[in-house]
Specification:
The chain has 528 residues and is of the alpha+beta class. It has two domains: 15-142 and 401-525, GroEL-like equatorial domain (GROEL, domain 1); 211-362, GroEL. The protein is built from 16 helices and 18 strands. The longest helix has 24 residues, at 255-278. It binds adenosine-5'-diphosphate (ADP) and magnesium ion (MG). The site of magnesium ion (MG) has 4 residues, from loops.
Length: 528
């Protein structure tokens, strides 16, 4: 039904309602899920996304694909939200979350076609979700987060099938070491692990730096390149001629006055240099610009200065030195200098990098990633982010589940049993909910080219015998205990995926009217 506005809406505005609206949203969401399906698992394929300028991204990462895709349909956009939530909450499992949402909606569409009301479906999906969460808890295995081998397995599982795969053993050890250096109370604060990408060499040349690396040049070529026991001043105001306000007026009547004005500005700049020198500074890291003249004088005094440093790096320096980021001339004081054991300017290929190591207050590490092109490095960064997200999840929950579709198969099996305790429509809906989980082992199997029917029947036989950790190893095609095969995932990643998939499919099912609206701000676009 379209354009049934009943004189309430503008005559040109569009409106779809009832089953048309529902079907359109469901179809769009399923279409999105179908796109990412082929990327799931270690044998998943990659997508190449190209914008109108010819720039491209090659990725296997669910959330990245959806973010870069030019998605128009509002129903499809809701699914992008699932991937984003998954990424921000747990850092991995985005593809699984989207695929599961698509499957739940596809099951719901069949039920709606059988004249079951969407409200009944969402109600039973909620019952199914609660049960799924308790099964997940029961099927999880408690681990010791200090177990290095296990953490390495988790990193490896997260990186298989991605560009990082070729060097995943080296990278996993690097990620483990990085995490151990910054973990506090079983929590990793994300800005304590910096990722610095450097084009050149290959992925296996990547290494861990026990400190902060900045991809910056010294503000003047004559500045020192090696400083031990540095006294570092971190500031976020410009060491330049003061900018005038937009509406300020300068009344200069003669050349002499103008020269005087310039002289005053230079005096101001020199007073900054003097103050910096007086207090014994050896390194200045500035978020804003540094005047060439100031840089020249600082160089003359043997001070290293870096201009236009990223805000995130300024925040890291604030954290590791424990000293405040100064934002005015008066605060240039000895007490605001941070101690850093070593600061070095190192040239790698054609780029300069500033390596800062040995902090007093807190620690921060850098994963210095090498790769042949920027595309490789970007995809490598996403794979590493997934691994760090997974390890962070395990440190928090201290529980893992069997991967390779094992947990989803077991969820499906137990939920099917659970559905039999209900009657009528509820039973039908819960059974459909249970069957939806099979999509994960099925797609893993399909993507790796093994026979789906054989695999599912093997899985059924083993799970029926109580071997609930049986899943598919996508490399060998063997169905086995995936914990033994070292295919392990954090419980939170699965928990979040199931929760958001159920919630978003229920949300889409509740929509019975799509009306062209006036501009809606992003923040309230998902309100009830
Ligand atoms: P997501 O974005 O959902 O994390 P991935 O492409 O990373 O998508 O795939 C994750 C899935 O791949 C999980 O179900 C995980 O258990 C599975 N997996 C990872 N390694 C293997 C493997 N060697 N064999 C089978 N399944 C694997
Ligand atoms: Mg993953």
């Amino acid at each position: 039904m379209t354009n049934q506005n009943n004189n309430v809406l503008d005559e040109n505005s569009t409106r779809t309602s009832g089953s048309t609206a529902l079907n359109s949203n469901i179809s769009a969401a399923i279409a999105v899920a179908d796109i990412v399906k082929t990327t799931l698992g270690p044998m998943g394929m990659d997508k190449m996304l190209i914008d109108s300028y010819g720039n491209c991204v090659i990725t296997n990462d669910g959330v990245k694909i959806l973010q870069e895709m030019d998605i128009e349909h509002p129903g499809a956009k809701l699914l992008v939200g699932v991937a984003k939530t998954q990424e921000s909450e747990v850092g991995d499992g985005t593809t699984s979350a989207v695929i599961l949402s698509g499957e739940l909606l596809s099951a719901a569409r069949t039920l709606v076609n059988r004249k079951i009301h969407p409200t009944a479906i969402t109600r039973s999906y909620k019952v199914g979700l609660d049960k799924a969460i308790s099964i997940l808890e029961n099927e999880s295995v408690v681990i010791n987060p200090k177990n290095k081998k296990l953490i390495l397995d988790i990193c490896n599982t997260a990186m298989t099938g991605k560009i990082a795969e070729f060097s995943k053993e080296t990278l996993s050890v690097m990620i483990y070491d990085a995490i151990m250096k910054v973990v506090e109370d079983d929590n990793i604060s994300s800005n304590k692990i910096k990722i610095q990408k450097s084009v050149g060499g290959d992925i296996s040349d990547s290494y861990l730096v026990d400190g902060i690396v900045l991809d910056k040049n010294p503000a003047n070529v004559n500045m020192p390149a090696v400083i031990s026991n540095a006294k570092v001043l971190v500031c976020d105001f410009a060491l330049e001629v003061r900018e005038l306000d937009n509406d300020a007026k300068l009344n200069i009547g003669s050349v002499v006055e103008y020269e005087k004005f310039l002289e005053n500005e230079q005096k101001y700049l020199l007073s900054i240099v003097n103050k910096i020198c007086e207090i014994g500074t050896s390194v200045v890291i500035c978020q804003k610009g540094i005047d060439d003249n100031v840089a020249y004088h600082l160089a003359k005094q043997g001070i290293l200065a870096i201009r236009r440093t990223r805000k995130s790096d300024i925040e890291r320096l604030n954290l590791v030195t424990g000293k405040k980021v100064i934002n005015n001339l008066e605060d240039i004081e000895k007490s605001n200098l941070g101690n850093v054991k070593s600061v070095k300017v190192i040239k790698i290929l054609k780029e300069n990098y500033i390596f800062m190591e040995g902090f007093e207050s807190s620690n921060c590490v850098t994963l210095f990633l090498k790769g042949s092109t920027e595309h490789v490095l970007d995809e490598l960064e996403r794979a590493i982010d997934d691994s760090i997200g997974d390890v962070n999840s395990v440190l928090k929950s201290k529980k893992i589940v069997a991967g390779g579709g094992a947990i989803e198969f077991e969820l499906s099996r137990q939920l099917t049993d659970f559905s039999k305790t209900f009657i009528g429509k509820e039973q039908l809906i819960l059974e459909a909910y249970a069957k939806s989980f099979l999509v994960i082992p099925k797609v893993l199997c399909e993507n790796s080219g093994f026979d789906e029917i054989d695999t599912i029947s093997e899985l059924t036989a083993l799970h029926e015998k109580g071997k609930s950790k049986s899943g598919l190893n996508c490399f060998s095609g063997v169905v086995n205990d995936t914990l033994k095969e070292k295919i392990v995932e954090p419980i939170n990643v699965k928990m979040q995926a199931i929760k958001s998939a159920t919630e978003i499919s229920s949300m889409i099912l509740r929509i019975d009217d799509v009306i062209a609206a006036k501009q809606i701000s992003e923040t309230n676009s998902s309100e009830n």
